[in-house]
Amino acid sequence: MESQTLYRVKKEDLPKLEKLLVKCFAHDPLYCKLIPEKETRERLLPELFKCDLTEFIETCEIYSDSEEMNSLLVVSDESEPYNPLTFYLTEAWASLKTDEYLIKEDPSLKTLWNFMRGRDYLNSRWTDQLHQEERLHVIYLAVDPDMQHHGLAAILMEEVIHYAQEHLMVSLETHNPDNVPMYEHFGFKLFGIVQKHFDLKQYCLIREIQ
Fold first, then answer.
1. Is the dihedral of CA 179, 184, 185, 186 positive or negative?
2. What's the predicted TM-score (pTM) here?
3. What percent of the chain has pLDDT over 70?
């Protein structure tokens, strides 16, 4: 994905975005299920998002609305060619580091077990059913809670739609049912609901090629 209007995030920006993600997802239904204890969640989330962003800066496109970085968009462009070896090594490293953090912070292994059971939620495996390589997948779309209702989510999503228009499907998921109407407003439709191992629903949405 390319954008002429959004700010393309650089490696030196990642620490600021780690804090943004922690702020945005501290009470997210998925992470509350995977890490139910609040104190453990507060310890783990900074390291988990650091690991995620280190992987995504190598394998995806990361944007914000501006250099102020009050919002975050992480997109995987499935239509672009990539080096499979680099991709899988980066992904494997991230997975190992994540497991290391989980074991270190919770030696009881309860959190590690939750993450293993929650792989289908975390890895967007439902997209395999789409059989569509001409596709963008929105991994993260987050707005600083203090900056919500300023149209930042719309700015990010409209840029995705503009880029995808006429040649790419767009896919994403949310664990908050209140978000579904917002995405439907942007032309997405519910593809299905994942519920596996947890009392948690993952709403899987797609915006078909227009």
1. positive
2. 0.90
3. 93
Contacts of 57 (CB under 8 A, 6+ apart): 9, 11, 14
State how far the alpha carbon of 10 is from the alpha carbons of 56, 61, 147, in Å.
11, 10, 22
pLDDT tier, 99 (very low <50, low <70, confident <90, very high otherwise): confident
Phi then psi for 150, rounded to 5 degrees? Answer: -115, 10
pLDDT at 142: 95
In angstroms, the CA 205 to CA 184 distance is: 9
Phi-psi region at 22: left, alpha or beta (left = phi > 0; alpha = psi -120 to 50): alpha
DSSP secondary structure letter of residue 156: H
Q: Which residues, other chains included, contact 28 with Cβ-Cβ below 8 Å and sequence gap of 6+? A: 175, 176
